[in-house]
Amino acid sequence: METLILGPGTLGCTLARHLQNRAPVRLVGPRAPRSPEFAALWQPEAPEHLERPTLLWLTCKASQVDGLIESVLGPMLKQTSPEVREMSLLIAPQNGLGITDRLVAADLNIPLCRAVAWFGARWEGRELLETPPPRRITLATEAGGRVHVLQQILNQAGFTVELQENDASNSIVEWKKALTSVALNPLLALERAPNGALLASAELQQRARVLQDEALQVFEALGLSGLSHEGAWKDLLLTCEQTATNRNSMLQDLEAGRPLELPWLNGWLLEQARRLGLSLPAHDEIVRRLGAAPAASST
Hints:
Blueprint: E1 2-6, H1 10-19, E2 25-28, E3 42-43, E4 54-58, H2 65-78, H3 82-87, E5 89-92, H4 99-105, E6 112-117, E7 121-124, E8 127-130, E9 135-140, H5 145-156, E10 159-164, H6 169-191, H7 202-221, H8 229-242, H9 249-256, H10 266-276, H11 281-291
Parallel strand pairs: 1-2, 1-4, 2-3, 4-5, 5-6, 9-10
Antiparallel strand pairs: 6-9, 7-8
Helix pairs in contact: 6-7, 6-8, 6-9, 6-11, 10-11
């Protein structure tokens, strides 16, 4: 199957680097990737339609999903034949909550697979630097057999793939990553520290557990199940161990003066908590502190 990656940022380019020797890969985005390594794979505009079954990766940030649905995904998939759409797969590894609902509501008529990329990468000048292997990916299995095709391709490209197998796997996978991100990302953004710093600080670990526990209150109040407090904590610690030198995406955004992903993580939790009549004081505090935190470029 062909691979089309919408979003030539760190994740999109990391995927392209490893997948290009397994299947045809195209990187699509208005701006070219920073590195000439990816020049031959890049094109500025998406095709008008999919001509053949495609693994369609949506690797943009959560804040860009709605815009890409309206301007790229929707028009392209409308022009694609039903047969090709049905044999294709939309993979959404965004870091954020509520993404699954937005993609389903868009009625794109293509099987959906929510995914989690547990590995890290960052740009240093024009060079893309990755954290050491393993490169773990979790995939939801609601889309059936197409996910197993994707799993095989990823395994052949050197990724370690875990499957989340249940009827609500897209939602569970979304939450599985978010329970790490809502604790790890804002805490270490405030500390201006890489992921491994949490392992060396009992105080940071205690604060991270409180953030996770509050998030799980919302998860359970929404009627969801399949994730546990201890499982979420193990995921967070494993992420810190395997990406110890990585500076998480929220920290990178803060240092670059870009908008933070708070509205799709801690902010989203607070909105749901207000609707559900829950109190999340640790998330209230973290959003307040990060909202007042100056970008590194302005200090």
